[in-house]
Amino acid sequence: MSVTIHESWSKQLQMEFEQPYFKEVRRFVKAEYDHHICYPPGREIFAAFDHCPFDEIKVVIIGQDPYHGPNQANGLCFSVRDGIPHPPSLINIFKELETDTGVPYPKSGNLERWADQGVLLLNATLTVRAHQAGSHQKKGWETFTDAVIRKISDEKEGVVFLLWGGFAKKKAALIDQAKHHILTSGHPSPLSANRGFWFGNRHFSKANELLLLNGKEEVAW
């Protein structure tokens, strides 16, 4: 696995790419992709970074790992390719978006349109074996993505972090809350949303309010 990532990120993360743990990640991922069907396609493993250059980050949304069904994952958390049915969590994200902002429920579940506006859609684990949820967890990806979150916290100011669910909320420990904004809620999965922990969080409008307060352009969700 060669690391091809947007130039702005390459500069920021060069030290990570040289760490022993990351060399193990590369070895593991290459073996997995050589011997199994894995997602997303190799060229899209770092798509979240390619669509959202380091200098343009305004919002960070943290997911856990990619969708593991055919043709779903495209390297952005919660996002699926154009024309692919929306998974349950994404359905609930779009329902809250519509209620919160009045944006009509989107036809496409491809969130590249968010990423291209400075929304980093970061999964903690960047790859997965087909039909085996969580199969690439605890192989080193989390060390890398934790370093990404710390780098954003250290080098940027006024970033809005949207932490959905218990897993994402733990990442708050990596973020300097004196410099950044953190909004938390339950996860958009049906289990959490149907228990009242997701709907009504108004994170999309709140994020835009915080961006405006910091003199940044709103996200056209």
Automatic annotation (TrEMBL):
Residues 50-211 form the Uracil-DNA glycosylase-like domain. Its EC number is 3.2.2.27. InterPro entries: UDG_fam1, Ura-DNA_Glyclase_AS, Uracil-DNA_glycosylase-like, Uracil-DNA_glycosylase-like_sf. Gene3D superfamilies: Uracil-DNA glycosylase-like domain (3.40.470.10). It is an enzyme of class 3 (hydrolase). The active site is at D65 (proton acceptor). It catalyses: Hydrolyzes single-stranded DNA or mismatched double-stranded DNA and polynucleotides, releasing free uracil. Coiled coil: none annotated. The lineage of its organism: Bacteria, Pseudomonadati, Bacteroidota, Flavobacteriia, Flavobacteriales. Belongs to the uracil-DNA glycosylase (UDG) superfamily. UNG family. SUPFAM superfamilies: Uracil-DNA glycosylase-like. The keyword Phosphoprotein does not apply. Excises uracil residues from the DNA which can arise as a result of misincorporation of dUMP residues by DNA polymerase or due to deamination of cytosine. This is Uracil-DNA glycosylase. It is found in: Cytoplasm. Keywords: Cytoplasm, DNA damage, DNA repair, Hydrolase. It holds the Pfam family UDG.
